[in-house]
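Hi U.,

Before I forget, here's the chain from the pilot set. I'm dumping it here mostly so it's searchable later in email.
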Amino acid sequence: MKLSDFNFNLPKELIAQYPSADMRHESRLMVVNRKTGTIEHHIFKDVLNYFDDGDVMVINNTKVFPARLYGKKEKTGAKIEVFLLRELNNPQRLWDVLVDPARKIRVGNKLYFGDNDLLVAEVVDNTTSRGRTIRFLFSGSDEEFRNRLDELGSTPLPKYIKRKPEDIDKERYQTVYAKEEGAVAAPTAGLHFSKELMKRLELKGINFAEVTLHIGLGTFRPIEVEDLSKHKMDAEYFLIPDNTANLVNTARETGKKVCAVGTTSVRTIESSVTATNMLKAASGWTNLFIYPPYDFKLTNCMITNFHLPQTSLIIMICAFAGYDLVMRAYEEAVKQKYQFFSYGDAMLIL
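Structure:
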């Protein structure tokens, strides 16, 4: 299949600019059944009706950090935006970043952030046209440094959300189970889970199996090749604990659902499969790109948001549920005015 096959008409007003419901579990839910081809319309909390004792939900516990900093350049005072991609060296406070505008940001330049220059960084390397390595000149403890970043940084909302970050985003652009800091984007399928809904699922016997995949900016990078086999994904760090592997493998052996909550959970578990199609506890980096035809080894159920055309995300959904069914579901979603993308509504694929 070609990239152009995954295009569809999406009215701009359907790209959610705010969370699609006041309460997380009140978002709309489209339920798509791969066996019967049926499409149903529900509220997200209705997922309770589709899971039973022993089923497993794989959730990504990565935590979004306030990755966008606004500052100024030394001497000229020119305004700059610095997007923190990942920490390279903790003791030295070295970070891989993107700078905008980058044209005159050179090695040796100092960058100042916050009133009274609360945080100062020095450029130590040029990595790409916009990429830089910077060292934060901060002498306090690691906790104090993190607090300073929290104070000065903004929630890194995707560019499709055409507004400035607000206080609501610090809470709502984060899952209720986020704990491992390191993502520059939220695993958005998980945003629909409230603590109350998770408790009700647990009382019904559903197990939550945690993985970590730190989502990088590559999740938003457009695919620029028509031949999907030539597309290369950015590598992202993942971790699968022993307990998660045990829960998933037990569910598989007993014929239960292994429901990946979000495309990042899918990529994580499908990146660490044994020769006998069992999940292996592991940590490392994955650049797995899932596109049709793909043989899913572990995932037999999925919760996901509605994705933008021609992205690696909708391509994965088509690999899982079948191209024709997904395109029919998306046509229905547009007709029924479902909200799309990070703050949008959800789809359960059985």
